Amino acid sequence: MKRLSLVLLLMVLMAVGCKLPGALKDLAPGGSGGTTSNGTATGGLDPREDVVQASKKFIALPAFSAKMEGVGQTEIKSQVDYVAPDRYRIKYLAGTGAGMEMIMIGNQTYMKTGDKWNKMPASPNSSTPTLRDSFTEEGLKSLTDVKYEGDDSVDGKPAAVYSYKNVTPVGNYPFSSKIWIGKQTGLPMKIFVEYSNGVLKHMTVNYDTESPVTIEAPAN
Asked: Which of 26, 89, 153, 177 has its CA 20 to 30 A from that of 44?
């Protein structure tokens, strides 16, 4: 479970900038976040506002997928699927645990090793962390040095690039980051995070916010 907790924490930290807004609980799913026609709030005129609005749009999503690649004590490579409010599927693609898969639905956890699924004992004193609850407005207070870095593309789609600095919500590790925000959607497409200390050195997350995602308990 420690490895699973790490992956979920990384997902939370990376999604729209490590502890960027999440418990904006009053946001309606699918809200527009006040974006302009090019998908960003100000089109680069107010970089901080653009990142904030992208964060709000992200946490309003009912589902998404993300591919994560990073370097810590070992190689980190995984895919995380999420369906609101509390469904997760984590596939370990490389490094420690490669080939393993986990599904979390509420307080139920299932682990797949080989071809067999096993239901893990539920812990009465813990609950599945939700991405929305983890992205608090409080996190915005430590967001600094937000800059518009220009235009780029991700998988052939136009994006605006921003850089910023922040600290992790757990451990208070400082980091610097770049985020690619889709010009057509106003949603995060990619994030690169680099840590100045701690076990995790750097992480790249690529988001798929368009493909449908379903997560169900395994049959066996």
From this structure: 26
